[in-house]
Amino acid sequence: MKTIKKPRVVGIFVAVIVVLAIIATLSIMKENKTRSEDNNISTENETKSGISIEFTYTEDYWKKYDLTNAVYKTQGDYENAVRKYIEEIAILLDKQNWYMQYSGMNTLCLELHINELKSVSVQGGVFSYKESTKRSTCTYELYLSDEMFKNNRSQLTQAISNLVLTQKHGELNDVEKGLTEYIQNSLGMGIASVNYGVDIHNYLIAYTKIKQDDKYNKSSMDSARTGLGKISSYTNYIGTHDKYKLNDEEVYKFNEYKVLCYHSFVDYLVQTYGFESVLKIADGYDDSIYNMFSPNGLKGLLEDWKNFLENYNCKMTWDEIDANISVLKKTQ
């Protein structure tokens, strides 16, 4: 009798263990599901550079928008693109350890905000760094326009470049901002914030010409071009509260023009001195770094850039550029 009952007892014991394991698994799945639904967070594995990424969303954008013209048809496509760009851009900029500036940071939380295009005239992100006993996280609020869903156009590469380049608790200088536009144009979708893939120098020259007759526009554009390139100060965009007393439309256009100048200047420097030299300039302590490339420093390089634009062989007039962009906006 004992030899018959022993296997039965063992069988019951094993069955109990299996049931308990199933209950525990279901409990964990339920907890994770609740956490995802409450916080809209998708936790990812570590990237190659050794940092974990969590994605958060202020809305369920993939349900909110018609996805016919969306750059990323699924949330998963978007998250894969983010991870890919972080790795590629960090290698390109030789900043694979960019996140090490945040003491003990092991988790990057990317919070996506999608807004109408004109409310995101300069796309990018905002840092919020938090330390805790359990883990140190860096929240990066990523602001992109709804063109990512409506017009098959995304500034994601530019925004990720912004993330990798930004120093702790800081912002970008003019050259770094120009680099983010250059990288967007090179690695991204062949576009930058303003020019829809049209040659950046041609675009800047043509746009400047049509605005020269307006006294205010001429003055503000001259100011944007001559005040460019400061290494030791952060890029300064204007808002409706500034001394210029501009409305939203005027602010949008003024800031766009500054972005055009940053991009054109950096593109010129890359063509003339090479990409690695521009990285050295961007990492410089102050404007004296320009003396390595011109005996007259920044002033001399700005003059060289100005002469470059004056002698540039433009292939398109402003009317042709405008018509070309209008077609792109309709077809994308």
Structure in words:
- With 332 residues, the chain is an alpha/beta fold.
- The chain has 2 domains: 129 residues; 162 residues, no CATH class.
- It is built from 12 helices and 5 strands.
- A 5-stranded mixed β-sheet has the order 1-2-3-5-4.
Q: What are the main properties of this structure?
A:
alpha/beta; 52% helix; 5 strands; 332 residues; disordered N terminus
| Beta strand count | 5
> What's the total helix number?
12
Unreliable parts: 1-6, 28-39, 237-243
Strand content: 5-15%
Give, in spatial order, the strands making up the sheet with the most strands: 1-2-3-5-4
Instruction: Write the element-wise H/E pattern from the N-terminal end onward.
Output: HEEHHEEEHHHHHHHHH
Over all CA atoms, what is the radius of gyration?
25 Å
Helix amount: 40-55%
Average pLDDT, all residues: 76
The total domain count is 2
What characteristic shape results from the CA principal axes?
A: globular
Instruction: Please state the structural category.
Output: alpha/beta
| Largest sheet properties | 5 strands, mixed
Distance between the termini: 80 Å
